[in-house]
Amino acid sequence: MLSWFSNGRFPLYLAPMAGVSDKIFRQLCKERGADVLVTEFVSSEGVFRRNARTRGYLDFDAIERPIGVQLFGGNAEHMAEAARAVVEWVQPDFIDLNFGCPVNKVVAKNGGSALLKDCPTLGTVAEAVVRAVAPLPVTAKIRTGWDDATVNAVRVAQLLESLGIAALAVHGRTRAQGYSGAADWDVIAQVAAAVSIPVIGNGDLFSAADVARRRTESGIAGAMIGRAAMSSPWIFSQTKHYLATSELLPPPEPAEKWALIQRHCELAVAECGVEDLAMRSMRGRLMAYSKGLPGSKLLRERFQRVSTLQEVEEIASLHLATCLEAA
Fold first, then answer.
1. CATH number of 254-326: 3.30.1950, 3.30.479, 1.10.1200, 1.10.287?
2. DSSP alpha helices (H): ranges in 180-250?
3. Which of 138, 179, 232, 244 has the fewest CB atoms inside 10 Å of its own CB, making it the most exposed?
4. What is the average per-residue pLDDT within 23-32?
């Protein structure tokens, strides 16, 4: 049903990340080898109420396919109606259900990982959406459980499979962990062994070698990369090369990294139409890009104040000159 898993393929997903995996960043990652993309999570209630801002999160270009729209919510009827509306509006390749978000404002509305401690409602939501958009595939993302005392990913995965979910991404942390501590890949492996649908592993995949090791150890059918892509979008092409050849590619040269950073900024300004506003919103993204660059601490201090493309160009020129002097 999901062609990107056929013929032994091992797809690499860009994780859906609020405020990060917008159209521009998705396309930059696609250019660098990401196989499957998912939108930032979208509120089913926003879609249900035909909220204009919510609809903006659904925007994508044909070049991004295969792409899924990720919905969250705890009302089965509204989730089903929202899923139908999304299919009508933008025709994604699949609908993805967010049963993993740990953020309080989502959990407080009985969305995201809140449903991991309410399996009856989780099942009702999943079944309603599967029926609403059939034959379009529906996938889901979960965590290992609500907390250490309620690790139930295997049971949740089996329930979702029985209700027609086509593939499942598992983040190897509980909701209580948030993004702290280490991802539990033993649980991910248990889920992969317990169901026949593809399981996509997620959590602490910071390099091509990490992905290859976890693939071998856990039996996952694909990998989902999130935070590492924020600082290194080229992780997708590096991983593909390593999986095919067992050869680790060196990281891109600083000039190549800066070309990507500046292009991202230019695209953000063009999309927004207001340079100052766009560049202020890019500050956090620039902070992430600074990771791994020489003198990253100084770069972060400068990125905190940028408001024009010219400033980024000046920072890039100065940094590259410093790198050449140090070489």
1. 1.10.1200
2. 185-194, 208-218, 227-231, 235-245
3. 244
4. 97
Q: How far is 304 from 62, CA to CA, in rounded Å?
A: 34
pLDDT at 327: 60
* pLDDT score of 24 more than 90: yes
Q: Which of 101, 119, 272, 323 is catalytic?
A: 101
What is the pLDDT at residue 102? 83
Q: Which residue has the tokens 């809140």?
A: 114
Q: Is the dihedral of CA 14, 17, 20, 23 positive or negative?
A: positive
Radius of gyration of the chain, Cα coordinates, nearest whole angstrom: 20
In DSSP terms, 168 is beta-bridged to: 140, 199
3-245, which class in CATH?
alpha beta
d(CA 251, CA 246): 15
Which residue is it, tokens 């407080």? 108
Is pTM beyond 0.90? Reply is yes
> Is 101 marked active-site?
yes
| Mean local confidence (pLDDT), 100-128 | 88
Who's near 181: CB < 8 A, 6+ residues apart?
173
Provide the pLDDT for residue 170: 98
Structural domain spans, the chain: 3-245, 254-326
- Average pLDDT over every residue of 264-279: 96
Q: What share of the chain has pLDDT > 70, as a percent?
A: 99
Task: Please name the helix (run of DSSP H) or strand (run of DSSP E) that holds residue 282, with its range, or none.
Answer: helix 275-290
**E runs forming strands in the chain:** 12-14, 37-38, 42-43, 67-72, 94-99, 138-145, 168-174, 199-202, 222-225
